[in-house]
Specification:
Helices cover about 40% and strands about 15% of the residues. The protein is an alpha+beta fold. The longest helix has 20 residues.
Length: about 725
């Protein structure tokens, strides 16, 4: 640990009740997220209270250090990454603080799906449903103004904000909601809040024409700051302005959110088309029928679904080039059935109609259909090699009526740059998630990503579109905001100055000066593109007849695979965060389920191995207790390997990591004995009366716990007089 990080850690530990870490191993866990970027922070703070957050902010301002808020780290634009102090709300800030009939008070680290599980008992839920809702925290939902497939019914998060508790850039804590104005002036008793609201109101009033002139024509827009529809004659909606600001204006520590009743009855139809353009045109015919969701998937998305799930292979016809997933709700089952019949009849009236359709009304079958939209995208990471489906331009939005024509322009741009891509769209409100297949370790491919983005955005602006519908600007899109907004970008700078005059909160995001930000800080791969200096020397292969390969540093490979196989496995983890899921319907990491912290997640282990193999972590870290503490949080249960959408074999990676530690440090007495359980069992069989007495004796079990680490509550098998 260098001197600066050691000082920051020591200073903050004296100021906070929460945890502070600044060692190399821990920082690697927070250097990346679900995006293509990597930026190592100076320190990580896990606050326990709003007072901790405020103290961290004051310290950062005094020492001119940036602050980056983080939830589950599932963002696709690198919005939670940065070189300063990362504040992780997901460990301690995850409580439901109270609920009323139509609203709920929550902390920002609470997972959205956990909230909806709680609300389901009252017949209500929080409407916006981003794809990773089973792991996404509400702080991230607010920071990105998340929407999801059901925008047609629920809109985006800003529609559901009642009030936010926010820590400002001077450490002051305010309640932000609809702030009353009398002749354009606020008279709140809190002087800091009063000054903030009045300055914002004056700015937005003077720039109202500029704000109105530069808005896109889309139904959704997450690019820049939400300045439209914030200022009204009698109030300023401060909560709505903060929603979607990506932690660049303040840190949310509590939120009161509006909830809505659960749908009484719903049904889903899958409509199969022989062309993408035909599916896009059908969307315009379906919107007057009032669907609650309308998603479009291209043939690559559909093909991957058929490959990874046998039920989809039986469900989706092989000739499908595109499909629409349409959901309807109604007062009863008959109403829903009638609505879906109208949907199918409407699309079959067209020339380029759907050639087939499926319907679902059973809740389990409906959930299966929705897996097409929610669980298939992360499986794109299963591709072997360095080519990946890269996020970065995955969040464009256009007016729905422009969708068919814009899809043609997308194909033309991709052909011009000789790039293929996967497309998933919330077609009902014109939002497009496009992921080109490129190699992020190849500088030429990185430049291709930039050129594709530039050409697509020019076509996007021509139809009144926006570069971000719900995933934020972050590192991916901030550089393009001046082009989208023109003179309005100057107003964004003023808003940032009013909230954050010292530029402490997530600097460079939304408001920034780096025209090449999109292509900086690309994640360093562990594979052939990585720095070979970190791979150690060539060593004999491990067990079996595998040829000699460069081994992991400090140790020969313990298992039958090559160094390139190890690197490819670590690289395959895209950081999507699916391994942080806690729901009863998934079989994910039991250690993370018991102690939900980033170091316990399977993703953390892949990040560490990639850090070692790419040279970002000193190979000697494999021999440290900090590394072993993380590796020991994997108990080789294989659950993450079975559930991981990218098939990352974390247990196998951790066996290599543990082997490296033992090779460098040897085994302690406890580990030596437990690794020879056959020998212990043979001895126990020889003295089985004494063994069985000890197993049942409380004092003897206390000794076993201290010597071998076997918990007193653990049920052990009785010893027999004969061995097999």
């Amino acid at each position: 640990m260098d001197e600066q990080r050691a000082r920051i850690e020591e200073d903050l530990r004296g100021l906070l009740d929460g945890d502070v870490r600044a060692d190399d191993v821990f920082l690697q866990l927070y250097a990346s997220d679900a995006s293509i970027y990597q930026l190592e922070p100076l320190a990580v703070v896990l606050p326990r209270s709003t007072a901790d957050v405020a103290a961290t902010v004051r310290y950062a301002v005094a020492n001119q250090l940036p602050i980056h808020a983080r939830g589950a780290g599932t963002g696709l634009a690198g919005e939670s990454l940065g070189p300063g102090i990362v504040v992780d709300f997901s460990k301690h800030f995850r409580r439901i603080l109270g609920a009323s009939e139509e609203s709920v008070l929550v902390q920002p680290g609470l997972v959205l799906e956990r909230l909806n599980t709680y609300l389901r008992a009252f017949g209500r839920h929080f409407g916006p449903d981003p794809a990773m809702s089973q792991v996404t925290t509400l702080g991230s939902v607010i920071a990105l103004n998340a929407a999801g497939s059901h925008w047609l019914k629920h809109g985006a998060t800003d529609r559901h904000i009642e009030q936010l508790q926010v820590v400002l850039a001077d450490g002051e804590v305010i309640e932000a909601g609809c702030e009353p104005l009398v002749d354009g002036v606020n008279y709140d008793p809190h002087p800091r809040k009063r000054a903030l609201v009045n300055e914002l109101a004056a700015l937005l009033a003077s720039e109202s024409d500029t704000i109105r002139k530069h808005q896109p024509r889309t139904k959704v827009n997450r690019a820049g700051y939400a300045l439209a529809n914030v200022l009204h004659p009698d109030h300023l909606n401060l909560g709505r302005l903060l929603c979607g600001s990506e932690g660049t204006l303040g840190l949310v520590t509590e939120a009161r959110l509006h909830t809505t009743p659960l749908a009484r009855h719903r049904g889903v139809a899958l409509l199969f088309f022989d062309s993408l353009e035909g599916a896009a045109k059908a969307v315009l015919d379906l919107l007057p029928l009032g669907p609650t969701a309308c998603d479009l998937m291209d043939r690559r998305h559909v093909g991957l679904a058929r490959e990874t799930e046998p039920r989809f292979d039986l469900l989706i016809p092989p000739a499908t080039e595109a499909l629409l997933l349409v959901e309807q709700e109604g007062a009863d089952t008959a109403d829903v059935r009638e609505r879906l019949r109208n949907v199918i009849a409407r699309v079959r009236q067209r020339k380029s109609s759907a050639f087939d359709a499926r319907q679902a009304f059973d809740p389990d079958e409906i959930d299966l259909y929705w897996q097409l939209a929610q669980k298939v995208v992360p499986t794109l990471q299963r591709m072997r090699g360095l080519t990946r489906a890269l996020p970065g331009i995955e969040d464009m939005a256009v007016p729905p009526e422009a969708l068919p024509g814009f899809l043609v322009q997308i194909q033309n741009v991709l052909k011009r740059h000789h790039v293929t891509a996967s497309l998933f769209a919330h077609a009902g409100h014109g939002q497009l998630h496009l992921r080109p297949f490129l190699d992020p370790s190849n500088p030429d491919d990185v430049q291709t990503l930039w050129r594709v983005a530039t050409d697509l955005y020019e076509a996007l602006f021509a139809v009144g579109g926006t570069i971000s519908g719900e995933h934020g600007d972050g590192l991916s899109r901030t550089a393009f905001l001046p082009r989208q907004y023109g003179d309005l970008y100057r107003v964004f700078r003023e808003v940032k100055r009013i909230f954050d005059p010292h530029n402490v909160f997530n600097p460079g995001k939304v408001v920034g000066d780096d025209p090449e930000l999109m292509t900086r800080h690309i994640r360093v791969p562990a594979g052939p593109g990585a720095d070979s200096a970190a791979t150690g020397t060539t060593a004999p292969a491990g067990n079996g007849d595998a040829p000699a390969d460069p081994a992991l540093p400090l140790v020969d490979l313990q298992l039958v695979w090559s160094r390139d196989d190890v690197a490819e496995m670590a690289d395959r983890c895209n950081g999507c965060g699916a391994c942080r899921a806690l729901g009863p319907e998934v079989r994910m990491c039991p250690i993370f389920r018991f102690a939900p912290a980033e170091e316990a997640s399977p993703r953390a282990k892949a990040n560490l191995m990639r850090g070692v193999l790419s040279g970002q972590i000193d190979p000697a870290a494999l021999a440290t207790d900090e590394f072993k503490a993380v590796a020991d949080l994997c108990v080789n249960c294989q659950m993450c390997r079975l559930e991981c959408p990218a098939n990352v074999d974390i247990p196998r990676l951790m066996l290599e990591a543990k082997g490296a530690y033992v090779s460098a440090n040897g085994q302690g007495v406890r580990e030596w004995l437990l690794a020879r359980i056959d020998l212990l069992s043979s001895v126990a069989s020889l003295i089985y009366p004494l063994t069985n007495w000890a197993i049942a004796n409380r004092q003897a079990r206390w000794v076993l716990e201290k010597v071998l680490g076997l918990a007193q509550g653990r049920k052990l098998p009785r010893a027999a007089s004969q061995t097999f």
